[in-house]
Description:
The chain has 3 domains: about 5-105, Fumarase C, Chain B, domain 1 (Orthogonal Bundle), CATH 1.10.275; about 110-355, Up-down Bundle (Fumarase C, Chain A, domain 2); about 360-455, Orthogonal Bundle (Ribonucleotide Reductase Protein R1, domain 1). Helix 3 packs across helix 8 (about 210-215), helix 10 packs antiparallel against helix 11 and helix 10 runs parallel beside helix 12. It is about 60% helix and about 5% strand. It is mainly alpha-helical. The chain has a two-stranded antiparallel sheet with strand order 1-2. It is elongated and about 100 Å long. The chain binds arginine.
Amino acid sequence: xxxxxxxxxxxxxxxxxxxxxxxxxxxxxxxxxxxxxxxxxxxxxxxxxxxxxxxxxxxxxxxxxxxxxxxxxxxxxxxxxxxxxxxxxxxxxxxxxxxxxxxxxxxxxxxxxxxxxxxxxxxxxxxxxxxxxxxxxxxxxxxxxxxxxxxxxxxxxxxxxxxxxxxxxxxxxxxxxxxxxxxxxxxxxxxxxxxxxxxxxxxxxxxxxxxxxxxxxxxxxxxxxxxxxxxxxxxxxxxxxxxxxxxxxxxxxxxxxxxxxxxxxxxxxxxxxxxxxxxxxxxxxxxxxxxxxxxxxxxxxxxxxxxxxxxxxxxxxxxxxxxxxxxxxxxxxxxxxxxxxxxxxxxxxxxxxxxxxxxxxxxxxxxxxxxxxxxxxxxxxxxxxxxxxxxxxxxxxxxxxxxxxxxxxxxxxxxxxxxxxxxxxxxxxxxxxxxxxxxxxxxxxxxxxxxxxxx
Length: 455
Ligand code: ARG
């Protein structure tokens, strides 16, 4: 007999049991479910809705059930539908009528809202910690590469010289914002819905604040309809996680490119690459590719959640059971990606000479030649045009700008003098860009110091 079976005269079809059961994926919330029930029972005992001794028995039995689950002694049943009813059923099997009092003043609607919030709060904290580990790796690489010159790109065309530290610190900023987003999201998740009942609260004088405090929530929900039907917190988390994955995917894409023979800026450690079953020479950056690929499933979860919630009338609807697989998969995926990514990054070999060589080609100092002319009194637009012509000449003569002779320089502008060579060296190009936020080693050092403070 189902826990809700009183109104029914026939059993549910077996196929329906299978179809609407969520135990297969919501059993992972057993800890939160039991903690929530213990807090609820204790509160019922304190306010005298059930005798204190019975509340105690319920709590101690729930603790036993918890340890039995953790020791693999409990078999959940599809017929009991979800984690909430599975645990309640076991409780009733163990202590009979007293166990039947646990659900007083509560509904599975506020119960599931509670469990999911608790579960995702914990996961959010774990993901936050993983992001901090990644931030540390980025700081470490940056500290060591403030002078490692490489080309900066726009349109994937060599643009201006920067340093590897500057490039890494760009990702630091992105992942640091991700941490901030998770913190904001967690704060909105941190609101306790129990007491919302099925939708309209309850007539029992429940002490909601006691339950909230007991379970480590900062606040209680302000509206019972909203308390049971809000899934913004899961959508918001999926959105934060999608942004994390978007950042990872950009980074992975770059690492994949940089691992190619064409770039050859880095080499992945053997432990983070794989070979080919047919081509003996291959060393593939699979880990980075797989993370890039997994971005899609996290976006998919976000879209699934948004679409599931779209147009749902207040308050709870069974559609909402579909929230769990989507958000759990997003959480699992990010948790699988972050540590392996951080490790891969910290073990990769950086080929500084190749980065430098790439920065020396592609006329990355062309802007600096124009700036040189501006300093000698040429208007910027004219300087731009003169340097454009120089670049054409260099391409035809297979030279870099800093390989032009003084005679050749003079042919483009009589204002050019010997100091041009120093002015347009890659080192000068980088060290001259010393505004706050720029690639000059001194600017990057300052931004690393700031980063350590917020980290
Ligand atoms: N397993 C359900 C879910 O995840 C729990 C809430 C069920 N409530 C209900 N009225 N059917 O949404």
